[in-house]
What we know:
The protein has helices spanning 10-15, 55-76, 122-135, and strands at 16-21, 25-30, 37-42, 80-84, 95-100. It is of the alpha+beta class and 138 residues long. The protein has a single domain, classed as HIT-like (HIT family, subunit A, 2-Layer Sandwich). A five-stranded antiparallel sheet has the order 1-2-3-5-4. A hairpin with a 6-residue loop joins strand 2 (25-30) and strand 3. The chain starts with 9 loop residues before the first helix and ends with a helix.
Amino acid sequence: MNHAPYALHPQLADDTHPLTTLALCELRLMDDANYPWLILVPRVADAREMIDLDADQRRQLTDEIDFAARLLRTAFRPYKLNIAALGNMVEQLHVHVIGREQGDPAWPAPVWGRVAARPYSPEQLVARIAQLQAALPN
């Protein structure tokens, strides 16, 4: 590893909107109105895999995945939660937390490569972020 300072990968910056900052991660909203979809990005330089985090960071990431999943459950009451860290297209470590419904555009398959992303309109984006922020604990 070259130990460059942490920076959000340009593809993640293009595909997501900031929601809040947690102790370890940036919590971001995926720009796909097909699903309630959050992305956690640990602010750790050069992290590509969970094993690139130290033990405390891995525990914190687990806590923040739990936080994001509970946030989606509170805000949207999804039928199922999908949680994944793939990184095949964007190598920077990031974790997807996706609320799924029976009958959503990709159900029951994984969301990747099934249907085109449906970017939020400006009005939808404001409403979705407000809905999530209202569900954040104080």
